[in-house]
Amino acid sequence: MTLGKGTLLSAASDTKAVTPPDIRLRKGRAPLVCLTAYTTPIARLVDRHCDVVLVGDSVGMVLHGLPSTLGVTLDMMIMHGKAVRRGLERALMVVDLPFGSYEEGPQQAFRNAATLMAETGCAAVKLEGGEKMAPTIAFLAERGIPVMAHVGLTPQAVNAFGGYPVQGRGADADRVGRDAAAVAQAGAFSVVLEKVPEQLARRITAEIAVPTIGIGASPACDGQILVVDDMLGLFGAFKPKFVKRYAELGGEAEAAIAAYADEVRGRRFPAAEHVFGDTLKNVAAAGPTGGEAA
Predict the structure, then answer these.
(1) Nearest Cα residue to 226 out of 84, 11, 56
(2) How many Cβ atoms are within 10 Å of 67's Cβ, its own excluded?
(3) Per-residue DSSP letter, 70
(4) Count of domains forming the chain
(5) Domain identity same for 279 and 225
(6) 7/89 Cα distance (integer angstroms)
(7) Angle ∠(248,252,256) on CA atoms, nearest 5
(8) Alpha-carbon distance 40 to 44, whole Å?
(9) Are 181 and 105 part of one and the same domain?
(10) Which of 8, 216, 256, 292 sits a CA distance of 20 to 30 A from 277?
(11) Is residue 72 part of a domain?
């Protein structure tokens, strides 16, 4: 498989599993396609199109109705990681280390990262933080745990930030730049840049040696990531500026549910084709769930 400019590693015919070294080699080449997934059905849908599938701690807000990612536990990440693993064949699966599972120190981070990898079958973990987390990233990388770093807006620091403001404006740009450089030098195989000014993301992408993955950053990043429920229109609590809706499945689902409710109340469902007679008409035509033919 060639990794020259313009190569689509995401090609459906390529069944080789993507690895962290493959991602690192994509620096400056064909943009990396990344999405989140939390369930087996969604994992199956994104696998053929994505280079990286992230089991993000955003699952807490998207699927569990939590107000932030802070309430997400390691057990939750393991459960969703196992589900996603069952749906993937080729995309690289990365799982977030949740809040409180790595900040105490490198040893805590190693124990929990090793547990995530052993339990879910993921090939890498993601953690938030810049210069202060560089020693932890180095500790993990030296012990065989590939790390995707995450700088700029780090949602687990929502209370410290006082919300979800853009990071790296004005004099703060130097801090975000130092964070990105530090995690790259520590051994991260890629760096997520979230909600930073476009010119800063462009500059960081040019300066560091590993791929940058943007979310609210710049088209110049080495790849892009979105929360899958955001881009499909399934999560409607709020819509960040950096999200593009590629579908409005939430509205379509609500319309379908309303139609179902209307038919049930009007006794139009189930219809004749959905119910069973007292004799089996065609055993050979029975479906995989054991249902009768018409």
Answers:
(1) 56
(2) 10
(3) T
(4) 2
(5) no
(6) 20
(7) 170
(8) 6
(9) yes
(10) 256
(11) yes
Q: How many CB atoms lie within 10 A of CB 240?
A: 14
Whole-angstrom Cα distance, residue 36 to residue 54?
4
264 and 157 co-located in one domain: no
**Residue 7 resides in a domain:** no
Phi, psi of 35 (to 5 degrees): -145, 160
Helix or strand run (H / E) with residue 60: helix 59-62
Beta bridge partners of 94: 54, 124
Whether 109 is in a domain gets the answer yes
Q: Which domain holds residue 256?
A: 250-285
Please say whether the beta carbons of 189 and 23 come within 8 A: yes
CB 188 within 8 A of CB 147: yes
Residues 91 and 217 in one domain: yes
Residue 5: predicted pLDDT: 43
- Tell me the C-alpha distance between 231 and 242, whole Å: 10
**What tens digit of pLDDT does each residue of 106-125 get?**
999 999 999 999 999 999 99
**Tokens coding 73:** 């536990």
Neighbours of 7 (CB within 10 A): 14
Predicted TM-score of the model (pTM): 0.90
Residue labelled with tokens 């050979």: 284
Q: How far is CA 15 from CA 11, 12, 22, 24, 87, in A?
A: 9, 7, 14, 19, 14
Report pLDDT digits (tens) over 181-225.
Answer: 999 999 999 999 999 999 999 999 999 999 999 999 999 999 999
Q: Are residues 257 and 241 in the same domain?
A: no
Residue 293 lies in a domain: no
Query: Do 196 and 281 share a domain, yes or no?
Result: no
DSSP-based three-state secondary structure for 236: coil
Task: Give catalytic residue positions.
Answer: 194
User: pLDDT for 4-28, tens place per residue?
Assistant: 444 444 444 457 999 999 999 999 9
Token reading at 205: 């992408």
